[in-house]
Amino acid sequence: MKIISTAKELKEQVKLLKLSPLGFVPTMGALHNGHISLVINARRKCPLIVVSIYVNPTQFNDKEDLKNYPRTIEADLDLLNKHLRKEDIVFIPYDKEVYPTEDKRIFGFGNLDNVMESLHRPGHFNGVGLVVSRLFDIVRPDMAFFGLKDFQQVAVIKSLVRKLKFGVKIIACPIVREPDGLAMSSRNRLLEKDIRKRAPVIFKTISRAAEMFGENDVPGIKKFVKSTIEKEEGFRIEYFEIVDDIDLIPIKNKRGIKKGKHYFGCIAVKAGKIRLIDNIEIPLA
Ligand code: AMP
Question: What amino acid positions are annotated as catalytic residues?
């Protein structure tokens, strides 16, 4: 694999290789098997892959979170080396490559700005939109691979692609979990030992919530999720919502269900000092 840090060199290299479709996997590093699953999905379709590693300052609404975000570049490169071919590219841009000048665009993602992550991380998705649009401009991929772990982000990216008319196909990939069910995340390594041990309660509880949907209505399920998780010392729910996968409109009760749509239970939990998110599809039949 080649390691490249400037937009100019990346563009030249891609042009030279003439391999298509070009697959793109954007990451913030601290890589784990969730990220690698995106690379594996890309490999199935793309003879050339660009993986970017860039901790994007504009998507952090919390300065401490940005400061503490894990940075493990050597280990990241070792891991990628096991999965990429010699022509594939790891793009580790300097700040000035992504943001040559201050990017002041405000996108507006409609209802996506008014639910779940957007309410708890103001400005986060605008920052995601800034970095992804800049990276798409530089890389010019045919396909880009994103994890359903960040469920709302996938909807935001699809909306961004429509808004800015990028000719890129967005491929959403399933969540990869630890053996005990916890969704893999770069932030898991920041969890205190005792909190990490009990963190599987999150997936266990939303899995139970999905099963309960047959016999229970939304308010009862929300109550169950909150009380079960908050029984654990140090765990606090920011939200648990059941939403459709297009507009992400939370349903208040089963009468809100629209035929032909898919619904997901989405959760954000503060586990000790660390914020974790997860989601699960709700079977309707
Ligand atoms: P990040 O480095 O956290 O910005 O994540 C980069 C990409 O990896 C995003 O598209 C995430 O949704 C995806 N990702 C992170 N964790 C997982 C996981 N456990 N399973 C699948 N995809 C993931």
Answer: 35
